[in-house]
Amino acid sequence: MITRDGYAALALITLATGATAQSARASDISSFAPHRAVYELTMGDSNAGSGVTGVSGRMVYELNGSGCSGYTQNMRFVTIMTNQDGADTVSDLRNSSWEEADAKKLTFSSTQYQNDQLADSSQGDALRSKGATPVVGVDLVKPAKKRVSLPTDIYFPMQHASTLVQAAKSGVKMFTANLYDGSEKGEKYYLTNTIIGPKFKTGVAASVGSFKGADKLATVDSWPMTISYFDAGKDHEDLTPSYELSFRYFENGVTSDLKIDYGEFSIKGELKELTLLEPAKCPAKDTH
Asked: Where do the structural domains in the chain lie, given as residue ranges?
């Protein structure tokens, strides 16, 4: 099965300020910057009863496409987790997805290996149907052919990311959404609650880090965010989240200062290298 760090990696997605959900929701995907980011993974906090004494690894994330053609995400998330007996477990998650620019379709594929053995895989398409009564359905190919129905207010990953940027720019401090990314055999979605902090300084006063390519972010707006993931269908106010993701989120879609918190232990992801890629070209508009 996919480990909890694998689920959280796949996620790398009600307003409480008086604004309506419709006013902050982005119907289309914003223009993010295609890029390749390399992160070093290390152990964060750990409780005595967690059974985890060490974590090391690497995550490579690549975003390609454009706001008109849609975006492709490719990620590889490899961790070596050491338990209290000194035994290591190597987890290798490989994930790929494409999301249509208007967020009407999501195609996803995910494969998980543990100690070089195939542990799990999922593949399918999620589609918003047209008509007076919208329907969001998922046609799964792996692990088995199956049809899954989702709530009509579901967010896909890039759509959710775009909405968070719009919310942050509008001064929204908290945003709640149902999020689907094809994880957990493609049959599950999460209720997410995002807390958005004050915008970081830019320009001369900016401090974005010392990683390769950091200079490209000095003038890009960014905010600290924490996303809590809850099992859908339950009142999140009465529950502990399944896990939380904390990070610095830049307006162009780059993420730094990652932390995945599982309660008993956490994993930190330090951005080591950022490379901006050429965006896909949009078709020329017909002026005739």
From this structure: 4-13+15-276
Peptide bond preceding 143: is omega within 30 degrees of 0, i.e. cis? yes
Q: What percent of the chain has pLDDT over 70?
A: 84
Spatial distance between the Cα atoms of 1 and 135, rounded to a whole number of angstroms: 29
- What letter does residue 132 receive in the DSSP assignment? S
Query: Quick one: the chain helix, strand, coil %, rounded to 5?
Result: 15, 50, 40
Nearest to 280 by CA among 25, 31, 78, 43: 31
pLDDT computed for residue 63 by the predictor? 96
- The type of residue at 288 is H
Nearest to 65 by CA among 281, 230, 257, 234: 281
pLDDT one-digit tens code per residue, 194-209 = 999 999 988 766 788 8
- Of the candidates 152, 159, 178, 183, the one whose C-alpha atom is nearest the C-alpha of residue 100 is 159
DSSP string, 161-226: HHHHHHHHHTT--EEEEEE--S-GGGT--EEEEEEE-PPPP-GGG----SSBTGGGGTTS-EEEEE
Residue 26 forms beta bridges with which residues? none
pTM of structure: 0.85
Residue 3 has pLDDT above 50, yes or no: no
d(CA 249, CA 257): 9
DSSP letters, 251-267, are: TTS-EEEEEEE-SSEEE
